[in-house]
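Project standup — Tuesday

K.O.: blocked on the structure for the chain from last sprint. Re-posting the sequence here as requested.
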Amino acid sequence: MESGSMIFLAILVAVCVIPMLIISAKKKKKEKLFLQELFNLAEKSNCKIAEHELWHNAEIGIDKAARKLFFIRKAGEDVISKTIDLAEMQKCRFINTNRSVGNGSSTQIVTERLELVFTNLDRNKADEVLSFYNSEYDSLTLRGEIQLAEKWAQVANSMIVPAAQKR
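H.V.: unblocked you, prediction finished:
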């Protein structure tokens, strides 16, 4: 190859690769800052996150020793942050709300919401709901949220002591 062609190829590669590297670095920095919010939320309760997940505009973490779950979700301009004391919960359920859409000859199941619902031991207190996916403000394509919600329901339930043992 001629040296002119090599220089052109090098410039072309640089023009394509450098923007991707910049975008990737910005995304990692944004994720790090968002994750720090979760650690700060736990710190307010004198807890330390032992396990966590980050996806799209949400994150969840748990302090297994303190048996507390921390959740932050950004939905548009709103930021929802919750701390759930698993010692005060009876159980955690995974709820997949969907509907059928079709024209008669073919139907498809469309997921509307994926949530974890925590039932409080005190029946006078409302259930705590953590939204893992909502079709109203999330992308139309699920990217592992079902498996993620199922996993965290298991993690939470493993930390919830059965009501019979609490008495």
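K.O.: great, moving the ticket to review. The longest strand covers residues 89-102. The chain has a mean pLDDT of 86.
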